[in-house]
Amino acid sequence: MTFTQFPMQREIVLTAGDTTVGVMPEISLVSHFQVKNWPVLYRARETGNIKRWGMPLMIPNFSRLKQGIFQDKGTTLPIHGFGRNLPWDVIQQDASSVTIQLTSNEHTRPQYPYEFVFTANIVAGEGTLTYTLTMENHSDEVMPIAPGFHPYFTVAQKDKADITVEGLPDIDPRTIQWATQPPDQPNPFPHSVTVHMPQEGVLTIAEQPVDGHYSLSTMQVWSEPSTAPDHAFVCFEPVVTSEDGLNRPADRLNIAPNSAQQIILKLSAQPY
Fold this sequence. Notes:
Blueprint: E1 12-16, E2 19-24, E3 29-35, E4 38-39, E5 55-58, E6 69-70, E7 75-76, E8 89-93, E9 97-103, E10 116-125, E11 128-137, E12 143-145, E13 148-149, E14 152-154, E15 164-166, E16 184-188, E17 192-197, E18 201-208, E19 218-222, E20 233-239, E21 253-255, E22 259-271
Antiparallel strand pairs: 1-2, 2-3, 3-4, 3-5, 5-13, 6-7, 8-9, 9-10, 10-11, 11-22, 12-21, 14-20, 15-17, 16-19, 17-18, 18-22, 19-20
């Protein structure tokens, strides 16, 4: 559909050599990542459903909470948090990078009663997309948080069984019933996973350490059955923790008062 053609009016376009990245700041969405002729990230062309698109950031929680309750505060948080439903401000932009920011406000405090600043720096490199998330806690108490990334990677339905994956031994695309029972399971994330996409190229999804530490322990693998109107994708989602993890102090991130923590995710794509 023409209304999903890149770039849309509200997309910021970043370039580096033969690499193009799109960003929609109002929903903290990396909406496009293309290397040469390979559109690495999926766009929901059939329905235009923006929730099935690109690589959204899910913050402060990626995973569903039991009964939707954030136990530390007795508040309600939706699956995937609120970050993708609120406008982020552009605070820096040049030809190859953009920095966007969300600050705690009257919409966030009833759900997540902390004073915070979330900053996302997105950089297009030669064949790469680097996403640096900085989470600042301006409260006088520990701020629990468990964000994650939800990338939709383009792959035709007929090619899903021919994907090969390095780094996730429990995922064998040849044995998955992609048309009727696509996966929806958490796996240990070994900091780097390489996916060979049939017809397209080799994709590496890697967390870069910050001060020698990693934050993304889990990779959720998910897709839609062929009966869904938009299904030509597979999601390999690097996240802090699995379902209800924000309610598990040992599994979430716990940011000390008046301090910050960073997560750096790098996608590298090499077309065939």
